[in-house]
């Protein structure tokens, strides 16, 4: 098993109050999209979700919301959900704790309805969790990382990587970013097709009950 794609149980155990996967007996998964909104790409994702009557939680970078408010509004109007991915997308280990918290505040200023936060670059220390949750946001990590951003992988590899790791309750990460675009544009439609062919449905993170998180 690839530990980057699927974070190991040992790592998850260090973060018990963070969401990795949702406890469910149904074939339902939680698609998430990080790093937007980005012109051309975020609207394209919304369109594909709509075609499959699927939905997703978009972890938006505050600075991109500032640059592209119309796309952010389009995302909210589409019935999908905007979570926060900080303001500057700088990793916490470079910013330090105080600046990291400040960056989260700035991100929430332009994204006030966000209920979920995903740390930029996935970097968060267990002892930072409670201070972040005090801001009224919950932290969502993931069960399956598509690795769509890595151009050394082909779209087919990305699709297979998602599908072989997918299970009920999986929180799956894609990126509505320029870096991921060559992989995303082929892998996402294929994954959506597989989901609908195999009796799975998609849900928004905000629709889950807080005690439904599992490792
Ligand atoms: Zn990111």
Which structural traits does this protein have?
alpha/beta, TIM Barrel, six-stranded parallel β-sheet, two-stranded antiparallel ribbon, 9 helices
**What fraction of the residues are assigned to beta strands by DSSP?**
15-25%
Residue share in helix: 25-40%
Radius of gyration: 16 Å
Q: Count of DSSP helices?
A: 9
What name is given to the CATH topology of the domain at 9-82 and 141-207?
TIM Barrel
Low-confidence blocks of residues: none
- CATH architecture descriptor name of the domain at 9-82 and 141-207: Alpha-Beta Barrel
Top-tier CATH class of the domain at 9-82 and 141-207: Alpha Beta
Biggest β-sheet strands, sense, barrel:
6 strands, parallel
Explain how this protein is built:
- There is one protein chain.
- α8 links the parallel β7 (144-145) and β8 (171-175).
- This protein has helices at 9-13, 41-51, 62-67, 69-77, 92-95, 97-109, 129-133, 155-165, 181-197, and strands spanning 21-22, 28-34, 56-60, 81-84, 116-117, 138-139, 144-145, 171-175, 201-202, 213-214.
- With 215 residues, it is α/β, with parallel strands linked by helices.
- Strands 2, 3, 4, 7, 8 and 9 form a 6-stranded parallel β-sheet that branches. It has a two-stranded antiparallel sheet with strand order 1-10.
- It has a domain at 9-82 and 141-207: TIM Barrel (Alpha-Beta Barrel), CATH 3.20.20.
- Zinc ion (ZN) binds at residues 34-35, 85, 89, 120.
